[in-house]
């Protein structure tokens, strides 16, 4: 009788243990998704939702459940939706997209938000910046500078609201900068500032003085020398080997145009910019090439774009790829520590390889190990 009781007890305990394993396997990881589903940015929000659907399909795990909620790109709507997700038992949320939508989210202490913003300064502890931040880009630029043994680099950044972010990231990267300049975005003021930075008037005067000297000389090859001088624009070099321009789109082109006007050519100096997301318009402008910049893995991006187009018959935004990777990142962390420990794992040192590249997670921050590209002769070439 006692023996039978022992067997029954062990069998019952085994059944409980087995049942707990089954329940554990069936536990769902609830992931909130805060994106604009209404308003002017709703198309972007829908693309992010579609990208998460592709991620769920590729991961092929019943553990993950996605709960999209609308932000309307509005801080008040965002926090209301976040509270709804909290009441549903959600502990981790992807989003919101825009920095302004983070305004009230520090009020929700027990949820971790993986925001698409690339700003990292003064963020509450419950918000993690998942965008391609300035630190990630400058770390990659630093690697390029060191590989090419570039010794004299100047840094140009526009007078905009993200300037403090740039300065802090520049400090963290420990890039050796010869001089830091911030410039006005208004074209006339910009050109005047670039003239000053490049000593253009002095170099232009040097040329005029040399032409005058040759004209008043009795040199045998005077005509030949004058013809040669008339083919150049300045005499004298600038005191830098490379220039980092933390600008984008038309702003970047304006700065390069001003540099060209002052006779500083990308064919003689390294022109390095921030991530241009493989902007096609840069490819068509040979005068501003070569130009170098850090970015995500282009091959992976093209593969994702093809998959997205095949699935939904539309071209995805870059944020769609980021949301795809964030689903994979959460799943990876859940395998390491379970849903409850995901927030804790963001404070530890870890790495995750996604489509964008490698995510480095440390101290509640995400940095990206980026690739480096060169645009030259209307082609994008990978440097590393």
Structural commentary:
- This protein is of the alpha/beta class and 384 residues long.
- The chain is built from 13 helices and 15 strands.
- The protein has two domains: 178 residues, 3-Layer(aba) Sandwich (Rossmann fold), CATH 3.40.50.2300; 172 residues, Rossmann fold (3-Layer(aba) Sandwich).
- The strands form four sheets. Strands 2-1-3-4-5 form a five-stranded parallel beta sheet.
- A hairpin with a 2-residue loop joins strand 14 and strand 15.
- Helix 4 packs across helix 5.
- The longest helix is centred in the first third of the chain and has 25 residues.
- The protein is elongated.
- The N terminus is likely disordered.
Summed up:
The protein is built from 13 helices and 15 strands. With 384 residues, the chain is an alpha/beta fold. It folds into 2 domains: 24-131 and 299-368, 3-Layer(aba) Sandwich (Rossmann fold); 135-295 and 372-382, Response regulator (Rossmann fold, 3-Layer(aba) Sandwich), CATH 3.40.50.2300.
């Amino acid at each position: 009788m006692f023996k039978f009781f022992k067997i029954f007890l062990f069998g019952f305990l085994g059944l409980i243990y087995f049942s707990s394993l089954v329940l554990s396997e069936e536990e769902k990881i609830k992931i909130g998704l805060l994106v604009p589903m209404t308003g002017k940015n709703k198309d972007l929000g829908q693309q992010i939702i579609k990208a998460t659907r592709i991620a769920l399909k590729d991961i092929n795990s019943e553990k993950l459940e996605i709960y999209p909620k609308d932000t309307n790109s509005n801080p008040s709507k965002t926090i209301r939706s976040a509270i709804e997700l909290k009441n549903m038992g959600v502990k981790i949320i992807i989003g919101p997209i825009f920095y302004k939508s983070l305004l009230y989210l520090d009020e929700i202490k027990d949820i971790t938000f993986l925001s698409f913003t690339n700003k990292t300064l003064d963020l509450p502890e419950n918000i993690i910046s998942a965008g391609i931040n300035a630190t990630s880009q400058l770390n990659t630029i630093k690697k390029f500078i060191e590989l090419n043994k570039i010794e004299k680099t100047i840094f140009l950044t526009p007078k905009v609201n993200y300037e403090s972010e740039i300065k802090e990231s520049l400090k963290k990267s420990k890039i050796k900068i010869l001089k830091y300049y911030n410039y006005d975005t208004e074209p006339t003021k910009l050109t005047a500032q670039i003239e000053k930075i490049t000593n253009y008037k002095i170099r232009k005067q040097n040329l005029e003085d040399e032409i005058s000297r040759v004209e008043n000389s009795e040199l045998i090859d005077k005509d030949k020398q004058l013809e040669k001088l008339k083919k150049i624009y300045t005499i004298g070099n600038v005191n830098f080997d490379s220039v980092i321009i933390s600008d984008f789109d038309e702003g970047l082109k304006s700065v390069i145009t001003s540099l060209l006007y002052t006779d500083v050519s990308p064919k003689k100096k390294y022109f390095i910019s921030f991530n241009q997301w493989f902007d096609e318009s840069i490819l068509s402008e040979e005068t501003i090439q070569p130009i170098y910049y850090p970015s995500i893995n282009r091959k992976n991006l093209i593969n994702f774009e093809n998959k997205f187009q095949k699935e939904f018959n539309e071209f995805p935004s870059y944020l769609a790829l980021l949301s795809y990777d964030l689903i994979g990142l959460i799943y990876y962390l859940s395998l390491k520590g379970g849903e409850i420990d995901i927030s804790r794992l963001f404070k530890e040192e870890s790495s995750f390889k996604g489509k964008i590249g490698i995510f480095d997670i440390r101290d509640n921050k995400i940095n990206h190990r980026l690739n480096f590209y060169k645009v030259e002769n209307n082609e994008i070439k990978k440097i590393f």
